[in-house]
Amino acid sequence: MSGTNDKEVKLSLKLMVDTKAKKVVFAEASKDFVDFVFHLLSIPLAKVVNHLKDKGMIGCLGSVYNSLNSLDSDYLEPNVNKDSILNPQVNHFILPVLSRIDTPSSSFGVFQSSSTFGGVSTTAGFVKSTGHYMVLDDLEVKPMTISLLKYHAIEFDKLEEKVVQVGLQEAVEILRASLTTKAVLTTVFLGKDN
Question: Each residue of 35-52: pLDDT tens digit?
Answer without folding.
Answer: 889 888 888 888 888 878
